[in-house]
Amino acid sequence: MPTTEPGAAATPPAPWLDRGAGVRLLLVAGLLALAAYGLQERWQGAALPLLARVVDWIEPGDQTLALHVQRQDGEDYFERIATPDGRHVYATRAATGYFVQPLILAAGLLAAWPWRRRRELLFRCLLAAPWVVMATALDIPMMLCGFIRQQELEAFDQQSLPWLVTWADFMLAGGRYAVTAAGSAAAIALACQAARDEPGPARAARGGGTPPAGPRGR
Questions:
Q1: Whether the predicted pLDDT of 22 surpasses 90
Q2: What domain count does the chain have?
């Protein structure tokens, strides 16, 4: 077994050797998933005004006729009925579970990666918060708009592929998980770097760092 010399600071284990990472990820993600399921009617109703505003911002030329929650085969969907030109009406929908998936995944990843102090965990959560909010607020509205553009392509046999259609295909293929994981990884890396760059006296004041040298002999 490796030994530590008396008076020397113990070296923390490598983060990737932490056996509790998987347990923390499953615990945090599981608790948030259960909370989202139990409170789904509340957050679904609260999300509708936000989704409507974001949809109108993404596609100001479209007229949204209805935006509501619809249940089919035991699963809830955000359904949007809109017309881009006042003549043709399209209906699109996206599973409501997509709305909370970025939050659940990000919280699990942020909690899974080990931290040395609580303030490091808090800092990484603050760094990841804007990214998670943006991913949550834009994901479903951009998909709903992209599905309408997809229906227009099929109806009118257009040659150009709108970027919203590409984005919707990317998110359905797992892009939301990649985007969330990238933002969480960046927040963890920045928080770890900030903890390493913290001045020595500040670490010593909390018990870390290298202890002061003993008295010199004459």
A1: no
A2: 1
